[in-house]
Amino acid sequence: MDNSLLLHLVLNVGLLFFGAAALTELRPLRHILQRRERSVANQLSMGLIFGLLSVGCTYTGLSFQGAVVNTRVITTLTAGLVGGPLAGVLAGALSGLHRYLYDPAGFTSLACALGTLCFGLLGALCCGWFARRAHRYTALIALTVGAELLQCLLILLLSKPFSASVALERAILLPKIAVNSVGIAAFLTLLDRLSRDLTIELAEQQALALLIAQKCLPYLREGMGSRAGLQKAADTVRETLPDFQVMITDTETVLAASGVEWSGAELPAPVCRALERGELYAGRFEPRRSVTVHTAIAAPLRCEQSVVGTLMLIAPMSASQMPEADRRTAESLSQFFSAMLELGELEHQVKLRQQAELRALQSQINPHFLFNALNTISALCLADPERAREMILVLARYFRQTLLINEPFVTLEQELSNVNNYLYLTEARFEDAIHVTWELPDDLQALRLPPLILQPIVENAIRHGFVAVDDRRAHIAIRQDATRAYVRVSDQGRGFPPEVLQKLRDPNDPSYSGLFNVCKRLRSIYGGLCEIDIQSSPQGSTVAFSVPLVPPRSREEEV
């Protein structure tokens, strides 16, 4: 075995490793190599990369007995095994064509060109088999030996004179098999390590971004409209990433900044670029009163697929010095922040819907009830002026309570006060026809309910649950245990019509008045925490529901 030949092959492998390591430091190539899903475009990109590496192996090869001894088998075989079938074919064709054009007059040029193409085809054919192998290094050595033997056969068949071919292969076959077998195993190890490093790096950045997002969750749920919340979020990011200054903007102005001053009327240039492109942008940033070069990474914030602002991280370094990990951190943070802002907007819409339902219920109650109450007061003005005056005061108190309710929940005491005002006004209309019995807990402050939940149920029992026109009976029972309250309103009427009862039990029914509204609001506010039971028979009806003593935390309470 020629020691100089062996040494040159080892040096050739070393140059290949150096070139591969240098190429993988380029950000686009790192992304291409990292992808596990090999699309057509990705395979073609991989084929081009490995093909160029293989071309480099030809230039660094050793001219020996009219041939060029090199390590092309490593790159072209790896192209197919790692990059996929298209990558192997492209790398083999590109490198094979170059080998032939490199020295068309060489007596081994045609055989070496075809052999290089075969290396790529062999990798393409064996990529699926190789991926399933448990002992990959054994498989690599076997494939390399097979590829080199194939190359040897092509040289012996196609290169003339035959005696020169035999002499060449006697000198180079064993050194090539030995060096290239070890080289391809080491080359695959290098690529695997790169992939693992990138995966670990990505996982670390995702974990850091998730940690920051968890800390910022209470502030971001206030939405883009809360500058105080966004300022707290920006301060939280800066506390966790002290090397960065932080800025949060909408599409027109800077909403929050931490560690950086910005007094300009216009948005910073990196923010404008990110908003225009709808994707992450890194560029030069010139903060106020600073002579140091800064680079800003601006990542768009989205809500319902629309860009609503940016998150910008700023560091005192040039763009070329900005690590890829920092870009990924900014991108991950913007994705988490976008999800939280969208969640906050969704909760806000749910709250508005609940408020709209409350207002709708109020608007339904007020005209109907006001008409009846005013008729009763009108009739009493001459017969019993003092009572009429008292009814006007109660009516005013009743409407003041219903119109000024803005809280998402009220105490049981407040809700019962509203029910009592309603009953007082109704009893005046029906004289002694209304008979209501009560079972109430001792503590009227423990339970908090959505406002105007009990009054429609009681009104329904009074209006429809009568034995006779002058005999209307209802029973209101409320009990509590350590965690829940159980509310039951019963009457002695003729029961609900079957079609009405079916609608009341259907959570998706579009009806929107009275008891329908109450049921929909309870389901919307409490979800699975609320149990509603409506029973009906010719002897009377019962509307019962059970809810937690402590209601779901409102959006304002969580922040």
Low-confidence stretches: 554-559
Q: What CATH architecture of the largest domain would you give?
A: 2-Layer Sandwich
CATH fold annotation of the largest domain: Heat Shock Protein 90
Tally the helices.
17
Question: What is the rounded distance between the termini?
Answer: 77 Å
Structural class: alpha+beta
Question: What percentage of amino acids are in beta strands?
Answer: 15-25%
Write down how many β-strands occur, each being a DSSP E stretch of 2 or more residues. Answer: 15
Largest sheet: number of strands, sense, barrel closure: 6 strands, mixed
Computed over alpha carbons, the radius of gyration is 40 Å
CATH class of the largest domain: Alpha Beta
| Helix coverage percent | 55-70%
Compute the number of structural domains: 3
- CATH H-level homologous superfamily name of the largest domain: Histidine kinase-like ATPase, C-terminal domain
Shape: elongated
Q: Overall mean pLDDT score?
A: 81
Textual characterization of the structure:
The chain is of the alpha+beta class and 559 residues long. The protein folds into three domains: 3-200, Arp2/3 complex 21 kDa subunit ARPC3, CATH 1.10.1760; 221-322, Beta-Lactamase, CATH 3.30.450.40; 347-558, Heat Shock Protein 90, CATH 3.30.565.10. It is built from 17 helices and 15 strands. The protein has helices spanning 3-24, 27-34, 40-59, 72-83, 85-102, 109-131, 136-158, 162-220, 227-240, 269-277, 324-383, 385-403, 412-430, 454-464, 498-505, 514-526, 555-558, and strands at 62-64, 67-69, 245-250, 254-258, 281-285, 294-303, 306-315, 410-411, 434-439, 448-449, 466-468, 471-480, 484-491, 531-537, 540-548. The strands form four sheets. Strands 9, 11, 12, 13, 14 and 15 form a six-stranded mixed sheet that branches. Strand 14 and strand 15 form a beta hairpin. Helix 1 (3-24) runs parallel beside helix 8 and helix 8 (162-220) runs parallel beside helix 11. The chain starts with a helix and ends with a helix. The relative contact order is 0.06.
